Amino acid sequence: MGAHDVIDYGTHIGEVNWRLNLQINRKMEDDRLLAGVKSGLQAAVTDPLTGLYNRRFGMSQLDRLATETLQNKGEMALILADLDHFKLVNDRYGHAAGDAVLSQVAQIMSGSLRKEDIVARIGGEEFMILLPNVTPAQANQTARRICQSVRNTRIQIGSLSGPASQSITVTTSLGVALLNGADGHCLTPDALFRRADRALYGSKSGGRGTVTVCRRSAA
After folding, report:
1. Most buried pick, 18, 26, 62, 96, via CB within 10 A?
2. 87-112 in b/e burial notation, b at 16+ Cβ within 10 A?
3. Distances, alpha carbon 61 to alpha carbons 148, 201, 217, in Å
4. Residues in the chain with pLDDT < 70?
């Protein structure tokens, strides 16, 4: 039946206590081992600095969502975001300040998304955001909300050469690619990613701190 032990009627209370303690200790050890497994699995998919998903997990979710979108003839969006002039932050304030910027920008992005959306850090200062079941207008609105929120937030940093606490502002450029599973095109996740990357380049070359939406097919 799945029981870990069976105690006959009339067993001495001392033996009952001993058996109960044995099972409790085994349960505690099982819980400890399970927690270790869960922690290891979480570490395998998480970026340690920002707490976001890492590139490997993010790309696997892109594959999954793109496949589901095509099968269900739905809509989704892929957003690539890159912090502008991030090297200047590291050069001027130090790498600890750069880490603080990345962590706080990650929080801003996470706070701008729905529960079902996915955000991952896929490079030094580059992020990928996956929006399942969204229209082009909703994707555009989300990207612009993130762009504006990052621009309007004072990022708290520390500097060894300056005050213990100070704040700076940063901007981010975003490129948006759209996937419509009902448009009849056989699109691949790689093609969608390249389309978002080209849109991101458009934002970078167009003045930075902006959003570029690629509305054409990514085929």
Report:
1. 62
2. eebbeebbeebbbbbbebbbebbeeb
3. 26, 23, 20
4. 1, 36-43, 158-165, 184-186, 215-219
Nearest to 176 by CA among 192, 154, 152: 192
Cα gap 16→22, rounded to integer Å: 10
Q: Is 129 helix (H, G, I), strand (E, B) or coil?
A: strand
**Torsion angle of C-alpha atoms 11, 13, 16, 17, degrees rounded to 10:** -170
Question: How big is the CA angle at 96 (ends 205 and 142), to the nearest 5 degrees?
Answer: 45
Residues 6+ apart with CB under 8 A from 55: 120, 121, 122, 123, 128
Q: Are strands 126-132 and 75-83 parallel, antiparallel or unpaired?
A: antiparallel
CA 186 – CA 163 distance, rounded (Å): 55
- Closest listed residue to residue 146, CA positions, set 77, 218, 48, 51: 77
Nearest to 155 by CA among 57, 72, 89: 89
113 vs 103: CA distance, rounded Å: 16
* Sole residue written with tokens 């009849």: 184
What is the set of active-site residues? 125
How far is Cα of residue 100 from the mean position of the Cα atoms in its chain?
17
State residue 216's pLDDT score: 62
